[in-house]
Amino acid sequence: MAIAVGAACITRGTTAPASYTFASKNGAADGTGTITSVCVYPGTNMTGIEFAVFEDKGANVLDCGGNTDGSNLAATTGEAPKTFTSAGLDFVAFVVNTGEYAGIYYTGGGLRLDNAGVSYWWLNSDEIFNGNSDTFSSSSPRIISLLMAGVEGEPPEGNFLPGSFNRGMNLGMNRGMN
Length: 178
What we know:
It is a single chain. The chain has no helices and 16 strands. It is mostly beta strands. The chain has a single domain, classed as Jelly Rolls.
């Protein structure tokens, strides 16, 4: 069964700035498995992109679960949807649990966002990655164009980031949330 985390990967009215970690409150993971694809909609060329999933511990404290390892940072060119896949070796697949939220950090450019939807968390840092926890700020209403997908169930053997794959999940890009 397909799993999705995040909101539709569509154009939106403005862009979110670089050098922040964002976690979308729109579309918590609807299952447990392994993230195998991520779609972003850039407003401008994006560089140094890292992806993660976050567990809400309450009081705006987020715990980073599975994440890309940062050694193969992604980039986009132009303003059009861009899908990264583990099969295409754009990133190393990572695990997500039911109820976790899609997250992103990038060093340059901007991700499309609207002043609509539920809200997002933000942190002026990328230090949250690699299993760390931190207290985020929350902005409402906000929705970012970030959608993760994969397949439900235990992660298969192979292309995984060591140390962050005991959490379990895979997604399917078919959830079109606005």
